[in-house]
Amino acid sequence: MTAVPAPTAKVQRQISLPLSKAVEIAWQNIRLRLSRSVLVTSGITLALAFLMAILTGDAVIGSMRNHIRAAPDRMQAQKLEAKMKANGVPTTPAEIEDDRLQHRWLITLALLVAFVGILNAMLMSVTERFREIGTMKCLGALDSFIVKLFLIESLFQGVVGTVVGVVVGLGLSLLSLSVTYGKLAWTDLPFAQLTAATALCLSIGIGLTVAAAVYPAWQAAKMQPIEAMRVEM
User: Fold this and answer.
1) What is the distance between the alpha carbons of residues 162 and 106, in angstroms, rounded to a whole number?
2) Which of 53-67, 90-104, 211-225 has the lowest mean pLDDT?
3) Which residues pair with 15 in a beta bridge?
4) 42 in a domain, yes or no?
5) Which domain range does residue 172 map to?
6) Rounded CA separation 58/90 (Å)
7) Any domain includes 14
8) How many whole angstroms separate alpha carbon 165 and alpha carbon 118?
9) How many CB atoms are closer than 10 A to CB 204?
10) Which of 3, 11, 111, 226 has its Cβ near the most Cβ atoms within 10 Å?
């Protein structure tokens, strides 16, 4: 009997695709599932618009308080302070601290709701794409490629939703303050604080969206190809 020679090389069952391919597939998935993508994007947009509006309002009103304290005409300063009180703006240190605490709770709640909504939408996306994921894994796609695919898709949605939310929140907040206080809202406009608030919102929005996609991406990557192909959708 002739001995069968041992294999000299390990058969490669998986292939490593470039990042550009993951970006291309992620973009195609967003276009094919536009309604779900809009749902995820709108959730982060609303949360970030709310956050940016609060931060903008706090920064502008704080600048207005400083302007009133430094105003040489005390009579005019008292009128402006009375107008702020009439519009529900806290003026005493205790009221300001309570207002900040309420804002923190509202911001936390809004971001938590957005996080849960994005997580649920991404989990549903994984469920809808069982066969697609199984096919890619059967063709040799690495687990890391599947993870990249979902994270890049989430990153696209996070960037768009965050940018739109920041612009909407900033614009609506400044418009509302202008209607209420007129030119005073634009006096000594705190550009440094608004820039810092914009950077903070961009970081939170994009980070929140990507973080919410980590578990769904991991779940998709760990899926067994045969089990995924057997699922009846």
Assistant:
1) 18
2) 90-104
3) 141
4) yes
5) 26-230
6) 11
7) no
8) 15
9) 19
10) 111
Our count of domains for the chain comes to 1
- Are 41 and 48 within 8 A, CB to CB? no
Mean pLDDT confidence for 195-206: 90
How much is the pLDDT for 172? 93
Torsion of Cα atoms, 124 then 127 then 131 then 134, to 10°: 110
Give per-residue pLDDT as tens, 72-129. 556 656 666 666 666 556 556 676 677 778 878 887 887 787 778 777 777 777 777 7
The CA-to-CA distance between both ends of the chain, in Å, stands at 51
Residue 123's CB is within 10 A of a number of other CB atoms, namely 16
Is 65 inside any structural domain? yes
- Alpha carbons within 13 angstroms on the beta-carbon side of residue 229 total 9
Give the predicted TM-score (pTM) of the model.
0.77
Cα dist from 95 to 89, 112, 152, whole Å? 9, 26, 43
pLDDT of residue 73: 58
* Other beta carbons within 10 Å of 47: 29
- Contact assessment for residue 126 and residue 40, using Cβ atoms and an 8 Å cutoff: no
| Residue of 223, 205, 222 lying closest to 154 (CA atoms) | 205
Distance of alpha carbon 142 from alpha carbon 16, whole angstroms:
6
